Amino acid sequence: MASDNTSDITDPRETSVLLGHEAAEAELLSAWSQGRFAHSLLISGPRGVGKATLAYRIARFVLSGDGAGNLFGTPDSLAVPDDDPVFRRVASNSHADLKIVERSFDPKRERRREEIVVGDVRELVTFFSMTAAEGDWRVAIVDAADEMNRNAANALLKTLEEPPAHGLVILVAHVPGRVPATLRSRCRRLTLQPLAPDLVGQIIAGQRPDITEDQRESLARLAEGSPGRALALADSNGLALYEELFNLIAGLPTVDMLAVHRLGDRLNRKEEGDTFNLIAYVLPHWLERMIQGSTVGSFPPPIVSGETEVMTRLAQTASLERWCEVWEKVRDLFSATNAVNLDRKQILLNVFSTLQTTSRA
Predict the structure, then answer these.
(1) What is the mean pLDDT of residues 35-47?
(2) 52 with 138, same domain?
(3) Per-residue pLDDT reduced to its tens digit, 83-99
(4) SS3 content of the chain, % helix, strand, coil (to 5)
């Protein structure tokens, strides 16, 4: 899968339960029952919130024929039983009428490409030109549409401009603004919102029963309503890393540079790629929470002990405008590091140097 999964997280292809998005499901069922089901859907929302899970849920529903109604009337859910043959074939990516478009493997670099290329999309033309092999519909899922390069997007546009009968294209997008307007305008939009903390905790408990209730609450807060991100954080020991970073921030304007150097040395190791990505999420996220709390006059519930006091103190060391500039700089530094392969340790040192200078103001 191209989605942000880890080894311990159930693949969206295999997930039979979708929590917190009942309104989106009801909207789709209503459109289907009234004969207004779009041939192109764009499902957007934060990473890990359930977009791909919903996409596969829709695909199974359409491919199984449940949406056509049965002896018991119109279905009241998109669910297909996990013992249904369609469910099993979708889970194994062996259904003849389902095509998945995602970042392909680059044999030269021995890893997935950074974007979806035109060759990944061109196969859709042939796919939709053929008669459905197992039922009435053919379904394609593009995950994620905001990872397509320009040529790939243009190739997909040709399919959306002339949608095939009984053909469905589902686009999954983490940042819909990066999907060309020409594609967005041809899709029915579904925007999934972050889940309530109790629902995130429920999902964590279902997939990781070894995690304590206190840890579930902290992960739910850190993940901002994204079950997928919460599970990825749990799988990568994210709470421990968060506490490590917080301890460095808590000392500002003094910084334990030896500790920063040790952390930086870890980041340039190939096996520590996940650690860098976690830091690239956690540090800007911490600053954003501090800024938002300072703006509204009430800081969010702490993830680790002492967090509120540190946020209160640091928010007073510089203007809100200055902290916003720092947040933007830190976010951009991490983003550029991944984009052009900059030295990760040096970027971390630059970030803490910026935080130190700002907190001395």
Answers:
(1) 93
(2) yes
(3) 999 999 999 999 999 99
(4) 55, 10, 35
